[in-house]
Amino acid sequence: MNELEQNSYAENVRFRHRTYQISKALWKMVEKDWSTWVESAGLTINEHHILLSAYLHGKMKLTDLSIYGMMHVSTAVNYSRKLELAGFIHFEKDTHDKRVNYIEITEAGKKIVEELEDKWQAEESLIVKSAMPIEQLFGNKPRFMEATGVVRSYYGEEFMSHIETPCDALIRTDKKD
């Protein structure tokens, strides 16, 4: 290996290590935040993610839910079945292809999403609190543009358009931080 290749290799090892470690640390913060928030409704992160996706995107194929929800199809099915038993979503088969299943949020499911949104407090969020020094220094919260670029490069535009779907439906106009 020549010097240029060695430098490139070393840079890639450092990049890989840093990415793995920062991603893991960020996920631990998100996981703690998210699970603490939704546990009052008796939900898990996956269950809430499914409800949120159905709330924001309407009727969805289970396969799309697994792709956009970053979970295996069997995980999406199992958690969706629990939500169906609780009355928060319902299943529907495609009329032309009975192998295709859709989920759709029910009124009870919408209500639980909205109640959780009402309960969310920015000042209790690890992610929001941890971003405050950056916001104070630069005037806005981190946008994760480089990380977004990496995700877009791997998963593609369709995935990113799902992620970037406006969440205005979640914003409570009567609520302030």
From TrEMBL:
Q: Name one GO molecular function term.
A: DNA binding
UniProt xrefs under InterPro entries:
HTH_MarR-typ (IPR000835), MarR/SlyA-like (IPR039422), Tscrpt_reg_MarR-type_CS (IPR023187), WH-like_DNA-bd_sf (IPR036388), WH_DNA-bd_sf (IPR036390)
Q: What is this protein called?
A: Transcriptional regulator
Sorted alphabetically, which keywords does the UniProt record give? DNA-binding, Transcription, Transcription regulation
* Protein origin, superkingdom: Bacteria
The HTH marR-type domain extends over 12-146
Question: What processes in GO biological process is this protein linked to?
Answer: response to stress
Q: So where does this one cross the membrane?
A: none
Q: What is the lineage of its organism?
A: Bacteria, Bacillati, Bacillota, Bacilli, Lactobacillales
The protein's matches in SMART domains, at most eight in alphabetical order, are given as: HTH_MARR (SM00347)
